[in-house]
Structures are given as C-alpha cells and as structure tokens.
Amino acid sequence: MSNVLVIESSARQQGSISRQLTEEFLVQWREAHPDDSITIRDLAKEPVPHLDETLLGGWMKPADRQSAAEKAALERSNRLTEELLAADVLVLAAPMYNFAIPSTLKSWLDHVLRAGVTFKYTETGPQGLLSGKRAYVLTARGGIYAGSALDHQEPYLRQALAFIGIHDVTFIHAEGLNMGAEFSEKGLAQAKSRLAEVA
User: Fold this and answer.
1) What is the count of structural domains for the chain?
2) Is the overall model pTM greater than 0.90, yes or no?
3) CB neighbours (10 Å) of residue 197?
C-alpha cells in the first residue's frame, strides 16, 4: 500500500481542466491501486501564506524565543512537510498562470523545501532527502509551451523536486486549451491518454 498526496492549485473550483485531470487520474489510480491511501490538499480552499518573516522566525528561532504567530507558522509548515514526508507518490495539479505555476503552489513549495528536513547542505552542495518517491505533474495550458523557452513550469518544478530528492517525475500536459475547439480537444485527449498509461 502506498500513500498518495495530491496538491490542487487551480484558483477555480468549476471549469478547471487541471482539476478534471486530477479526478480522472484518481479514478484510474484507485482502480489500479485500491488499497492506497489518498490525501488531497486544495490550495484554493486552504491557501498557504506566502513565505514571510513570521515563518522564517518559526524555522530559525529557538522555541523559547518564538512568538505565538511564529509557533503557529512553524506548526503549519510542519503539517505540510509531514504530509509530503509520508507520501510515496506526489501528484501536483498545476494550471499555467502567466507562463508559470500558481503562486499558491509556490507558497506550498516554500513551506516544504526545508533545510535539514527535506534537503541538507553538504560539502559537495545540497542533497535531497526524499529519494524513492514518485511525482506526477498534471498541467493545463492555454497555449502550446512544452519544450519552449516560455515554459517556466516544467523546468522549475523539475528543479524544485530534484532539490529535495524526487527525480522520478512524469509530466502530463494538456495544451492548446485556449486555441480553439480543435486544439483544445486534441490537447485534452492526449493528456487523458497519457493519464491512462501512467495510472
């Protein structure tokens, strides 16, 4: 049995293609892995605050010097990090907003990329501590960006995940969604076909 952690980051609850992809992925995953435990964290329903001085204080100050707000910020970061540590499989649902990931997803990453917890510094550079995990990234894009210089989603997420030791990462892009019916239908069909392969 595996633990699956799903991170939803679309600002929309209705009409979201990335959420549609997540639903389809989970239907197929449950059929193939009925005993797996699935946790869904929705960053639109429960936004994670941006990295700020309060969270930094929670990370860096001794417990007896932390304010109540800093303790609360640390507890929130700990909860998010513990969810990630417990997961065997990570699923990130990420629509493309202005060529990159949603700011809510960036905030989540800022809470879980933690020195001494998910990575450590060594004499030869940073080393990820989450080896052995798999990740699937489901994206929804209005245009066609895969492999182009305008794609700031996949390179960034690959780097961020590799930084904490997650190197087994599969991207499934639904592209061309705002380029007319033909492109939209083709892009969604291709993404669903890839979902069926990996789930």
Assistant:
1) 1
2) yes
3) 9
